[in-house]
Each structure stands twice: as structure tokens, then as C-alpha cells.
Design brief:
The chain is of the alpha+beta class and 102 residues long. The chain has one domain. Helices cover 45% and strands 16% of the residues. It is built from 4 helices and 3 strands. Strand 2 and strand 3 form a beta hairpin. The longest helix has 19 residues. The radius of gyration is 14 Å and the shape is globular. It starts with a helix and ends with a helix.
Length: 102
Amino acid sequence: MCGLCGIFGLEAHWTDDPGATPVSRQADRAHRARVANTVLGLFGLKLTPWADRFTLAGRTGKSAVVGHLGAVWPTAEKLAGRPCDPLDPAVIERVEHLAARR
């Protein structure tokens, strides 16, 4: 999807605070991306805030625009070409191991 197409069709999601100021909304999205990247990095993916949305990119250069966190995981599976389950016990164990090292 091109960047322009990603601008249209933004739906509300429960993770977005409707009363947030533009500055606090950007800070919230940046924080969510950092947290999500802890898991996404295990699959070779990176989430970046962009224009009240996110871009999700893989190591091969493939990328997609996602409107909210709910759309990240199905998109991650498409980009990675494999299941990306953040609740998989093995994934949770790896994230806990990474957190313990910090």
C-alpha cells in the first residue's frame, strides 16, 4: 500500500484515547511502538509511528501501513510469512529473558 492510501480509512480503536491532544497521542503511539517492537523484533519486524498510524517493516524491505495495534498482528504474519503470536509461551519466555537482561 502506498503512503497516501494509508492516510484514508482510519477507524477508531480502543487503544486510542479520543480525548488525547495531538502531542500526547504521538507520545502514546511512540510508546506503544517501542513495547510492540520487543515482540515484533523476534520476528524480524519493526513498528514505527507515522501520521497517526504505524508502519510495519520487515528485514526484506516489505512494509505496510496499519491504523492501530489491532491490525499489527495479522499484518505482521503477512510480512513475516509465518505465524506471529505474541501470546505463544516460547515468545513470552524470550521477551521475559530480554527484559531480565536489561
